[in-house]
Design brief:
Chain lengths: 238, 253
Protein backbone atom coordinates (compact mmCIF):
# COMPACT_ATOMS: atom_id res chain seq x y z
CA UNK A 1 0.00 0.00 0.00
CA UNK A 2 2.87 2.28 0.90
CA UNK A 3 4.36 1.69 -2.51
CA UNK A 4 1.16 2.66 -4.27
CA UNK A 5 0.90 5.82 -2.17
CA UNK A 6 4.53 6.70 -2.89
CA UNK A 7 3.90 6.17 -6.58
CA UNK A 8 0.85 8.41 -6.43
CA UNK A 9 2.86 11.12 -4.67
CA UNK A 10 5.47 11.14 -7.41
CA UNK A 11 4.87 12.92 -10.69
CA UNK A 12 5.70 9.74 -12.63
CA UNK A 13 3.03 7.94 -10.60
CA UNK A 14 0.36 10.54 -11.33
CA UNK A 15 1.33 10.47 -14.98
CA UNK A 16 0.99 6.68 -15.05
CA UNK A 17 -2.47 7.02 -13.53
CA UNK A 18 -3.32 9.40 -16.35
CA UNK A 19 -1.85 6.98 -18.88
CA UNK A 20 -3.78 3.99 -17.58
CA UNK A 21 -7.11 5.82 -17.26
CA UNK A 22 -6.43 7.44 -20.64
CA UNK A 23 -5.92 4.06 -22.31
CA UNK A 24 -9.17 2.86 -20.74
CA UNK A 25 -11.00 5.91 -22.09
CA UNK A 26 -9.42 5.55 -25.54
CA UNK A 27 -10.67 1.94 -25.54
CA UNK A 28 -14.16 3.20 -24.69
CA UNK A 29 -14.03 5.88 -27.35
CA UNK A 30 -13.16 3.30 -30.01
CA UNK A 31 -15.92 0.96 -28.82
CA UNK A 32 -18.36 3.89 -28.91
CA UNK A 33 -17.25 4.71 -32.44
CA UNK A 34 -17.79 1.12 -33.58
CA UNK A 35 -21.31 1.32 -32.13
CA UNK A 36 -21.99 4.59 -33.96
CA UNK A 37 -21.11 3.04 -37.28
CA UNK A 38 -24.16 0.79 -36.95
CA UNK A 39 -26.05 3.88 -38.09
CA UNK A 40 -24.86 2.94 -41.59
CA UNK A 41 -26.25 -0.60 -41.53
CA UNK A 42 -28.97 -1.12 -44.08
CA UNK A 43 -32.45 -1.25 -42.69
CA UNK A 44 -35.96 -1.37 -44.11
CA UNK A 45 -38.11 1.15 -42.23
CA UNK A 46 -41.27 -0.62 -43.42
CA UNK A 47 -40.10 -4.03 -42.23
CA UNK A 48 -41.33 -3.53 -38.69
CA UNK A 49 -37.97 -4.22 -37.06
CA UNK A 50 -35.91 -1.81 -35.02
CA UNK A 51 -32.99 -0.03 -36.66
CA UNK A 52 -29.71 -1.92 -35.92
CA UNK A 53 -28.56 1.06 -33.87
CA UNK A 54 -31.72 0.88 -31.74
CA UNK A 55 -31.22 -2.86 -31.32
CA UNK A 56 -27.67 -2.17 -30.19
CA UNK A 57 -28.96 0.38 -27.67
CA UNK A 58 -31.39 -2.17 -26.34
CA UNK A 59 -28.61 -4.74 -26.11
CA UNK A 60 -26.48 -2.34 -24.04
CA UNK A 61 -29.35 -1.65 -21.65
CA UNK A 62 -30.22 -5.33 -21.21
CA UNK A 63 -26.71 -6.77 -21.31
CA UNK A 64 -26.28 -9.36 -18.54
CA UNK A 65 -30.05 -9.64 -17.92
CA UNK A 66 -31.59 -11.79 -16.46
CA UNK A 67 -28.59 -12.90 -14.40
CA UNK A 68 -27.95 -9.29 -13.53
CA UNK A 69 -30.53 -6.55 -13.17
CA UNK A 70 -31.50 -4.68 -16.32
CA UNK A 71 -29.20 -1.69 -16.82
CA UNK A 72 -26.79 -3.40 -14.37
CA UNK A 73 -23.77 -3.81 -16.62
CA UNK A 74 -24.51 -0.48 -18.25
CA UNK A 75 -24.35 1.34 -14.92
CA UNK A 76 -21.22 -0.50 -13.82
CA UNK A 77 -19.58 0.59 -17.07
CA UNK A 78 -20.83 4.16 -16.64
CA UNK A 79 -19.50 4.38 -13.09
CA UNK A 80 -16.16 2.89 -14.11
CA UNK A 81 -15.86 5.40 -16.95
CA UNK A 82 -16.82 8.29 -14.69
CA UNK A 83 -14.22 7.14 -12.16
CA UNK A 84 -11.59 6.96 -14.91
CA UNK A 85 -12.49 10.48 -16.07
CA UNK A 86 -12.32 11.87 -12.53
CA UNK A 87 -8.97 10.22 -11.77
CA UNK A 88 -7.60 11.43 -15.11
CA UNK A 89 -8.75 14.99 -14.47
CA UNK A 90 -7.66 15.10 -10.85
CA UNK A 91 -4.17 13.82 -11.66
CA UNK A 92 -3.96 16.32 -14.54
CA UNK A 93 -4.95 19.13 -12.18
CA UNK A 94 -2.33 18.16 -9.59
CA UNK A 95 0.37 17.86 -12.25
CA UNK A 96 -0.64 21.23 -13.68
CA UNK A 97 -0.35 22.96 -10.30
CA UNK A 98 3.07 21.33 -9.80
CA UNK A 99 4.28 22.58 -13.17
CA UNK A 100 2.81 26.02 -12.65
CA UNK A 101 4.77 26.33 -9.41
CA UNK A 102 7.92 25.17 -11.18
CA UNK A 103 8.09 28.40 -13.19
CA UNK A 104 6.49 31.40 -11.56
CA UNK A 105 8.10 34.00 -13.81
CA UNK A 106 7.87 33.35 -17.51
CA UNK A 107 10.01 34.61 -20.35
CA UNK A 108 9.59 38.08 -21.77
CA UNK A 109 10.30 36.73 -25.21
CA UNK A 110 9.02 33.20 -25.62
CA UNK A 111 9.67 31.15 -28.68
CA UNK A 112 7.56 28.04 -28.93
CA UNK A 113 10.00 25.53 -30.26
CA UNK A 114 8.57 22.21 -31.27
CA UNK A 115 5.31 21.95 -29.41
CA UNK A 116 2.73 20.35 -31.61
CA UNK A 117 -0.68 21.99 -31.60
CA UNK A 118 -1.95 18.80 -29.95
CA UNK A 119 0.56 18.92 -27.10
CA UNK A 120 -0.05 22.61 -26.42
CA UNK A 121 -3.80 22.15 -26.16
CA UNK A 122 -3.88 19.10 -23.88
CA UNK A 123 -5.06 20.92 -20.77
CA UNK A 124 -7.67 23.23 -22.25
CA UNK A 125 -8.56 20.62 -24.84
CA UNK A 126 -9.30 18.21 -22.01
CA UNK A 127 -11.59 20.73 -20.32
CA UNK A 128 -13.41 21.38 -23.61
CA UNK A 129 -13.86 17.64 -24.18
CA UNK A 130 -15.26 17.28 -20.66
CA UNK A 131 -17.81 20.06 -21.29
CA UNK A 132 -18.67 18.50 -24.65
CA UNK A 133 -19.28 15.12 -23.00
CA UNK A 134 -21.73 16.75 -20.55
CA UNK A 135 -23.57 18.34 -23.47
CA UNK A 136 -23.46 15.06 -25.39
CA UNK A 137 -25.05 13.15 -22.49
CA UNK A 138 -27.77 15.79 -22.10
CA UNK A 139 -28.30 15.65 -25.86
CA UNK A 140 -28.39 11.95 -26.78
CA UNK A 141 -28.65 10.08 -23.45
CA UNK A 142 -31.12 12.06 -21.36
CA UNK A 143 -32.50 14.16 -24.21
CA UNK A 144 -32.75 17.32 -22.08
CA UNK A 145 -31.26 19.54 -24.78
CA UNK A 146 -32.62 17.56 -27.76
CA UNK A 147 -35.78 19.15 -29.23
CA UNK A 148 -37.23 15.93 -30.71
CA UNK A 149 -35.96 13.36 -28.23
CA UNK A 150 -37.71 10.02 -28.07
CA UNK A 151 -36.52 7.50 -25.50
CA UNK A 152 -35.01 4.35 -27.05
CA UNK A 153 -35.22 5.63 -30.64
CA UNK A 154 -31.45 5.97 -30.97
CA UNK A 155 -31.31 6.22 -34.75
CA UNK A 156 -34.17 8.71 -35.03
CA UNK A 157 -32.67 10.90 -32.27
CA UNK A 158 -29.35 10.86 -34.05
CA UNK A 159 -30.82 11.94 -37.39
CA UNK A 160 -33.08 14.64 -35.97
CA UNK A 161 -30.27 15.83 -33.70
CA UNK A 162 -27.73 16.21 -36.48
CA UNK A 163 -30.19 17.74 -38.92
CA UNK A 164 -29.49 20.96 -37.07
CA UNK A 165 -26.38 22.30 -38.85
CA UNK A 166 -24.88 24.13 -35.83
CA UNK A 167 -25.25 21.00 -33.68
CA UNK A 168 -23.60 18.79 -36.32
CA UNK A 169 -20.77 21.29 -36.81
CA UNK A 170 -20.27 21.52 -33.07
CA UNK A 171 -19.94 17.74 -32.85
CA UNK A 172 -17.42 17.73 -35.70
CA UNK A 173 -15.29 20.39 -33.97
CA UNK A 174 -15.53 18.60 -30.62
CA UNK A 175 -14.49 15.30 -32.16
CA UNK A 176 -11.54 17.12 -33.77
CA UNK A 177 -10.51 18.30 -30.30
CA UNK A 178 -10.90 14.75 -29.00
CA UNK A 179 -8.72 13.35 -31.78
CA UNK A 180 -5.95 15.87 -31.10
CA UNK A 181 -6.11 15.02 -27.40
CA UNK A 182 -5.94 11.30 -28.17
CA UNK A 183 -3.04 11.81 -30.59
CA UNK A 184 -0.79 13.44 -28.01
CA UNK A 185 -2.29 11.26 -25.27
CA UNK A 186 -1.42 7.93 -26.88
CA UNK A 187 2.13 9.00 -27.67
CA UNK A 188 2.44 10.40 -24.17
CA UNK A 189 1.06 7.24 -22.54
CA UNK A 190 3.66 5.15 -24.36
CA UNK A 191 6.41 7.40 -23.02
CA UNK A 192 5.01 7.55 -19.49
CA UNK A 193 4.60 3.81 -19.17
CA UNK A 194 8.10 3.39 -20.56
CA UNK A 195 7.29 1.34 -23.64
CA UNK A 196 10.75 0.62 -24.78
CA UNK A 197 11.08 -1.92 -27.47
CA UNK A 198 13.09 -0.32 -30.29
CA UNK A 199 10.52 -1.21 -32.95
CA UNK A 200 7.65 0.14 -30.87
CA UNK A 201 9.65 3.28 -30.12
CA UNK A 202 9.78 4.18 -33.78
CA UNK A 203 6.11 3.31 -34.24
CA UNK A 204 4.80 5.44 -31.37
CA UNK A 205 4.17 8.67 -33.28
CA UNK A 206 2.76 7.08 -36.46
CA UNK A 207 0.57 4.73 -34.42
CA UNK A 208 -0.82 7.61 -32.34
CA UNK A 209 -1.45 9.62 -35.53
CA UNK A 210 -3.15 6.69 -37.29
CA UNK A 211 -5.45 5.99 -34.34
CA UNK A 212 -6.36 9.67 -34.04
CA UNK A 213 -7.21 9.88 -37.74
CA UNK A 214 -9.34 6.70 -37.63
CA UNK A 215 -11.14 8.11 -34.60
CA UNK A 216 -11.79 11.46 -36.28
CA UNK A 217 -13.06 9.96 -39.54
CA UNK A 218 -15.15 7.33 -37.77
CA UNK A 219 -16.87 9.88 -35.56
CA UNK A 220 -17.49 12.64 -38.09
CA UNK A 221 -18.91 10.15 -40.61
CA UNK A 222 -22.27 10.14 -38.82
CA UNK A 223 -22.98 13.91 -38.57
CA UNK A 224 -21.51 14.41 -42.06
CA UNK A 225 -23.78 11.69 -43.46
CA UNK A 226 -26.84 13.24 -41.79
CA UNK A 227 -25.97 16.68 -43.17
CA UNK A 228 -25.41 15.12 -46.60
CA UNK A 229 -28.79 13.38 -46.33
CA UNK A 230 -30.46 16.75 -45.89
CA UNK A 231 -29.31 18.14 -49.20
CA UNK A 232 -28.57 15.11 -51.38
CA UNK A 233 -29.96 11.65 -51.95
CA UNK A 234 -26.89 10.04 -50.35
CA UNK A 235 -26.72 10.12 -46.59
CA UNK A 236 -28.61 9.20 -43.47
CA UNK A 237 -32.28 10.11 -43.27
CA UNK A 238 -35.26 8.90 -41.32
CA UNK B 1 27.16 44.94 -37.07
CA UNK B 2 25.24 46.96 -34.52
CA UNK B 3 22.71 45.34 -32.23
CA UNK B 4 20.22 46.33 -29.56
CA UNK B 5 20.31 44.10 -26.48
CA UNK B 6 17.59 43.79 -23.88
CA UNK B 7 19.30 42.14 -20.95
CA UNK B 8 17.79 40.95 -17.68
CA UNK B 9 19.60 42.75 -14.83
CA UNK B 10 19.14 41.64 -11.25
CA UNK B 11 21.56 42.70 -8.50
CA UNK B 12 20.98 39.66 -6.27
CA UNK B 13 18.61 36.79 -5.47
CA UNK B 14 16.18 39.09 -3.63
CA UNK B 15 16.29 41.95 -6.12
CA UNK B 16 13.19 42.41 -8.30
CA UNK B 17 15.19 42.75 -11.51
CA UNK B 18 14.32 44.42 -14.80
CA UNK B 19 15.35 44.56 -18.43
CA UNK B 20 18.00 47.10 -19.45
CA UNK B 21 18.67 48.07 -23.03
CA UNK B 22 22.23 48.31 -24.37
CA UNK B 23 23.80 48.98 -27.74
CA UNK B 24 26.39 46.47 -28.98
CA UNK B 25 28.39 48.25 -31.66
CA UNK B 26 30.97 47.13 -34.21
CA UNK B 27 30.35 43.46 -33.57
CA UNK B 28 32.22 41.14 -35.92
CA UNK B 29 30.33 38.14 -37.19
CA UNK B 30 33.16 35.81 -36.22
CA UNK B 31 32.78 36.69 -32.54
CA UNK B 32 31.02 34.23 -30.27
CA UNK B 33 27.94 35.36 -28.40
CA UNK B 34 29.93 35.49 -25.15
CA UNK B 35 32.70 37.53 -26.84
CA UNK B 36 30.00 40.00 -27.79
CA UNK B 37 28.82 40.17 -24.16
CA UNK B 38 32.46 40.63 -23.04
CA UNK B 39 32.71 43.61 -25.36
CA UNK B 40 29.52 45.12 -23.99
CA UNK B 41 30.86 44.53 -20.46
CA UNK B 42 34.15 46.30 -21.24
CA UNK B 43 32.15 49.28 -22.36
CA UNK B 44 29.98 49.15 -19.21
CA UNK B 45 33.09 48.90 -17.03
CA UNK B 46 34.65 51.92 -18.77
CA UNK B 47 31.51 53.88 -18.01
CA UNK B 48 31.76 52.82 -14.36
CA UNK B 49 28.67 50.57 -14.52
CA UNK B 50 28.24 47.00 -13.30
CA UNK B 51 29.06 44.50 -16.06
CA UNK B 52 26.46 41.90 -16.99
CA UNK B 53 27.05 38.74 -14.94
CA UNK B 54 26.91 35.48 -16.87
CA UNK B 55 28.45 32.06 -16.30
CA UNK B 56 31.11 30.68 -18.60
CA UNK B 57 34.11 28.42 -18.36
CA UNK B 58 35.37 26.26 -21.23
CA UNK B 59 33.86 28.30 -24.09
CA UNK B 60 33.87 25.21 -26.26
CA UNK B 61 30.55 23.62 -25.40
CA UNK B 62 31.66 20.89 -23.01
CA UNK B 63 31.45 22.30 -19.49
CA UNK B 64 27.77 23.25 -19.28
CA UNK B 65 28.42 26.54 -17.47
CA UNK B 66 27.04 29.00 -19.97
CA UNK B 67 23.36 29.06 -20.58
CA UNK B 68 20.86 31.79 -21.19
CA UNK B 69 17.68 32.36 -23.13
CA UNK B 70 18.51 34.20 -26.33
CA UNK B 71 15.38 35.49 -28.03
CA UNK B 72 13.31 32.93 -26.14
CA UNK B 73 15.46 29.94 -27.11
CA UNK B 74 17.86 28.23 -24.71
CA UNK B 75 21.44 28.72 -26.02
CA UNK B 76 20.13 30.75 -28.94
CA UNK B 77 18.86 30.09 -32.42
CA UNK B 78 21.28 27.42 -33.66
CA UNK B 79 20.72 23.74 -32.85
CA UNK B 80 23.08 21.41 -30.96
CA UNK B 81 25.38 24.10 -29.58
CA UNK B 82 25.75 26.00 -26.33
CA UNK B 83 25.60 29.80 -26.03
CA UNK B 84 29.42 30.01 -26.10
CA UNK B 85 29.50 28.17 -29.44
CA UNK B 86 26.95 30.51 -30.97
CA UNK B 87 28.53 32.92 -33.41
CA UNK B 88 27.35 36.40 -34.18
CA UNK B 89 26.95 35.47 -37.87
CA UNK B 90 23.66 33.96 -36.72
CA UNK B 91 22.42 37.54 -36.28
CA UNK B 92 22.25 40.47 -38.64
CA UNK B 93 22.86 44.17 -38.38
CA UNK B 94 20.09 45.99 -36.52
CA UNK B 95 18.75 42.89 -34.73
CA UNK B 96 17.14 43.22 -31.34
CA UNK B 97 18.17 40.44 -28.95
CA UNK B 98 16.39 39.56 -25.71
CA UNK B 99 18.71 37.89 -23.20
CA UNK B 100 17.16 36.30 -20.13
CA UNK B 101 18.27 33.86 -17.46
CA UNK B 102 16.92 30.29 -17.44
CA UNK B 103 13.63 30.49 -15.58
CA UNK B 104 12.64 27.82 -13.09
CA UNK B 105 11.77 27.79 -9.41
CA UNK B 106 14.51 25.19 -8.94
CA UNK B 107 17.00 27.55 -10.67
CA UNK B 108 16.82 30.75 -8.61
CA UNK B 109 18.50 33.74 -10.24
CA UNK B 110 21.70 34.67 -8.38
CA UNK B 111 22.57 37.70 -10.42
CA UNK B 112 21.66 38.93 -13.93
CA UNK B 113 21.95 35.81 -16.13
CA UNK B 114 23.51 33.55 -13.48
CA UNK B 115 21.20 30.95 -11.98
CA UNK B 116 21.85 28.54 -9.12
CA UNK B 117 21.78 25.02 -10.57
CA UNK B 118 22.71 23.17 -7.37
CA UNK B 119 19.36 21.40 -7.64
CA UNK B 120 20.97 19.32 -10.43
CA UNK B 121 23.78 18.29 -8.11
CA UNK B 122 21.28 17.19 -5.48
CA UNK B 123 19.44 15.08 -8.07
CA UNK B 124 22.77 13.39 -8.89
CA UNK B 125 23.53 12.89 -5.19
CA UNK B 126 20.22 11.05 -4.81
CA UNK B 127 21.53 8.13 -6.86
CA UNK B 128 23.64 9.14 -9.84
CA UNK B 129 26.62 7.04 -8.87
CA UNK B 130 27.75 3.42 -8.69
CA UNK B 131 29.29 1.82 -5.61
CA UNK B 132 32.56 0.25 -6.67
CA UNK B 133 35.85 -0.48 -5.04
CA UNK B 134 38.14 2.26 -6.18
CA UNK B 135 41.87 1.84 -6.39
CA UNK B 136 43.65 0.04 -9.17
CA UNK B 137 41.55 0.05 -12.31
CA UNK B 138 40.50 -3.31 -13.69
CA UNK B 139 41.42 -4.35 -17.18
CA UNK B 140 39.54 -2.22 -19.69
CA UNK B 141 38.09 -5.16 -21.61
CA UNK B 142 37.21 -7.36 -18.64
CA UNK B 143 33.49 -6.59 -18.92
CA UNK B 144 32.21 -6.92 -22.46
CA UNK B 145 29.47 -4.45 -23.35
CA UNK B 146 27.42 -4.72 -26.56
CA UNK B 147 28.14 -1.87 -28.97
CA UNK B 148 24.51 -0.73 -29.02
CA UNK B 149 24.36 -0.43 -25.23
CA UNK B 150 27.70 1.33 -25.13
CA UNK B 151 26.47 3.83 -27.74
CA UNK B 152 23.22 4.49 -25.90
CA UNK B 153 25.03 4.95 -22.61
CA UNK B 154 27.49 7.27 -24.27
CA UNK B 155 24.76 9.35 -25.95
CA UNK B 156 23.14 9.83 -22.53
CA UNK B 157 26.50 10.58 -20.92
CA UNK B 158 26.92 13.48 -23.36
CA UNK B 159 24.68 15.53 -21.00
CA UNK B 160 26.69 18.48 -19.68
CA UNK B 161 24.06 19.51 -17.12
CA UNK B 162 23.60 22.98 -18.58
CA UNK B 163 19.89 23.17 -17.75
CA UNK B 164 18.65 24.07 -21.23
CA UNK B 165 16.08 21.24 -21.00
CA UNK B 166 14.55 22.84 -17.91
CA UNK B 167 14.69 26.31 -19.45
CA UNK B 168 12.93 25.20 -22.64
CA UNK B 169 10.35 22.96 -20.99
CA UNK B 170 6.92 24.62 -20.67
CA UNK B 171 6.63 22.81 -17.32
CA UNK B 172 10.20 23.61 -16.18
CA UNK B 173 10.75 19.89 -15.82
CA UNK B 174 14.22 18.38 -15.51
CA UNK B 175 13.17 14.94 -16.66
CA UNK B 176 15.57 14.94 -19.62
CA UNK B 177 18.53 15.72 -17.38
CA UNK B 178 17.45 13.16 -14.78
CA UNK B 179 16.73 10.55 -17.45
CA UNK B 180 20.12 11.05 -19.11
CA UNK B 181 21.95 10.77 -15.80
CA UNK B 182 20.03 7.60 -14.96
CA UNK B 183 20.41 6.09 -18.44
CA UNK B 184 24.16 6.47 -18.84
CA UNK B 185 24.50 4.11 -15.88
CA UNK B 186 21.51 1.85 -16.54
CA UNK B 187 22.76 0.76 -19.96
CA UNK B 188 26.02 -0.52 -18.47
CA UNK B 189 26.63 -3.65 -16.37
CA UNK B 190 28.25 -1.55 -13.63
CA UNK B 191 25.00 0.36 -13.20
CA UNK B 192 22.73 -2.66 -12.70
CA UNK B 193 23.23 -3.26 -8.95
CA UNK B 194 21.57 0.00 -7.88
CA UNK B 195 19.53 0.57 -11.02
CA UNK B 196 16.00 0.76 -9.62
CA UNK B 197 16.96 2.51 -6.36
CA UNK B 198 18.80 5.05 -8.46
CA UNK B 199 15.81 5.74 -10.69
CA UNK B 200 13.45 6.06 -7.70
CA UNK B 201 15.83 8.22 -5.70
CA UNK B 202 16.68 10.61 -8.52
CA UNK B 203 13.08 10.92 -9.74
CA UNK B 204 11.82 11.72 -6.25
CA UNK B 205 14.63 14.25 -5.69
CA UNK B 206 13.67 15.79 -9.04
CA UNK B 207 10.15 16.38 -7.70
CA UNK B 208 11.44 17.55 -4.31
CA UNK B 209 13.58 20.24 -5.97
CA UNK B 210 10.44 21.83 -7.39
CA UNK B 211 10.86 20.94 -11.04
CA UNK B 212 7.67 20.47 -13.03
CA UNK B 213 6.59 17.23 -14.64
CA UNK B 214 7.04 15.97 -18.15
CA UNK B 215 4.13 16.30 -20.57
CA UNK B 216 6.09 14.82 -23.49
CA UNK B 217 6.26 17.97 -25.62
CA UNK B 218 9.83 17.28 -26.68
CA UNK B 219 10.98 20.90 -26.26
CA UNK B 220 13.89 19.67 -24.10
CA UNK B 221 15.22 17.43 -26.85
CA UNK B 222 15.06 20.33 -29.27
CA UNK B 223 16.90 22.67 -26.90
CA UNK B 224 19.53 20.18 -25.74
CA UNK B 225 22.96 21.20 -27.06
CA UNK B 226 23.94 17.52 -26.96
CA UNK B 227 20.83 16.25 -28.76
CA UNK B 228 19.76 13.90 -25.98
CA UNK B 229 16.62 12.00 -26.92
CA UNK B 230 13.34 12.05 -24.98
CA UNK B 231 13.32 8.27 -25.32
CA UNK B 232 15.55 8.23 -22.25
CA UNK B 233 12.63 9.71 -20.30
CA UNK B 234 10.50 6.68 -21.22
CA UNK B 235 13.30 4.48 -19.90
CA UNK B 236 13.45 6.46 -16.65
CA UNK B 237 9.67 6.18 -16.20
CA UNK B 238 9.89 2.45 -16.76
CA UNK B 239 12.57 2.05 -14.11
CA UNK B 240 10.64 4.24 -11.65
CA UNK B 241 7.49 2.16 -12.16
CA UNK B 242 9.43 -1.10 -11.90
CA UNK B 243 11.21 0.10 -8.78
CA UNK B 244 7.93 1.09 -7.15
CA UNK B 245 6.28 -2.24 -7.88
CA UNK B 246 9.31 -4.32 -6.90
CA UNK B 247 9.14 -5.16 -3.19
CA UNK B 248 12.86 -5.81 -2.91
CA UNK B 249 13.79 -2.28 -3.94
CA UNK B 250 14.52 0.11 -1.12
CA UNK B 251 13.80 -2.48 1.58
CA UNK B 252 16.53 -2.94 4.21
CA UNK B 253 17.79 -6.53 4.43
Amino acid sequence: MNRVLNLYRSSVGKKSLMAVTGILLVGFVFGHMAGNLKAFQSWDPAGGTLHPLDQYGEFLREFGYPILPEYGVLWVARIALLAAVLVHMFAAYRLWTQSRAARTRGYRKAESQVFSYASRTMRWGGVIIFLFVIYHILHFTTGDVHPDFEYGAVYANLVTGFQSTPVALFYIVAVGALSLHVYHGIWSAFATLGVQNARVERARRPLAAALAIVLFLGYISVPVAVLAGRWTSIGLTL
Amino acid sequence: MNLTLHVWRQAGPDDAGAFETYRAEDISDSMSFLDMLDLVNEDLTRKGKEPIAFEHDCREGICGSCGMMINGVAHGPERLITACQLHMRSFKDGDEIWIEPFRATAFPVMRDLVVDRNSFDRVIQAGGYISVRTGSAQDANATPIPKRDADRAFDAAACIGCGACVAACPNASAMLFTAAKVAHLSYLPQGQAERLERALGMASQHDAEGFGNCTNHGACQEACPKGISVDYIARLNRDVLKGTLNKAVGTPD
